[in-house]
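---------- Forwarded message ----------

FYI, see the MTH1187 family thiamine-binding protein record below. Original note from H. follows.
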Amino acid sequence: MAIAEVTVIPIGTGSTSLSSYVAELQRVLEKQEGIKFTLTSMSTIIEGTLDDVFAAIRAIHEAPFESGAGRVSTSIKIDDRRDKASSSEQKIQSVREKL
């Protein structure tokens, strides 16, 4: 299972507010199959197979262009653990157990 932290920044929107773009990205993710996602204050966490995660990232990278953005900068950080099952919740729980 891959876990990706993704930040999509539309550029050339004419406004410093991006919440409408973020909301649209969340709607796009709701339509993606095979993933789980969580919005945070600074990014979105996407979990699933590597293929499904990449498909979701491509969809949210394209969405701002469809909404009129002239440029899009997307940052991606991926944790792809294959030696055992992993999830965002499992990673957080592991730290909590050690506290």
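H. also flagged this: The two ends are 25 Å apart (CA to CA).
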